[in-house]
Amino acid sequence: MVGKKQGHAKACEVGQFLFNTAPFLVIDSSPAARGKALSRLLTLSASISYTDAVVMAVADEYGTQKIFGFDEAFANCGYENIPRWSEAEAA
Hints:
Elements: H1 2-6, H2 8-20, H3 31-41, H4 50-61, E1 66-67, H5 72-76, E2 80-81, H6 85-90
Parallel strand pairs: 1-2
């Protein structure tokens, strides 16, 4: 998403930051999370993508409400967006 909104150079910078900075944890989804995401997709708004549903399922699996996202869909589903890179820089 960063690449889409701010270009590949910024996406690379953010990716390196997330990869190398605690407490961020970059993981692959489990088969259970993928299955939960598919099931949950049936109950979510049509504007929410499968990728968003996977993010929510993984957050649930790890017992957190904090996620790194760019749209209001997460907040509307009870998750807390970690501030965007530009918002964090401004703070």
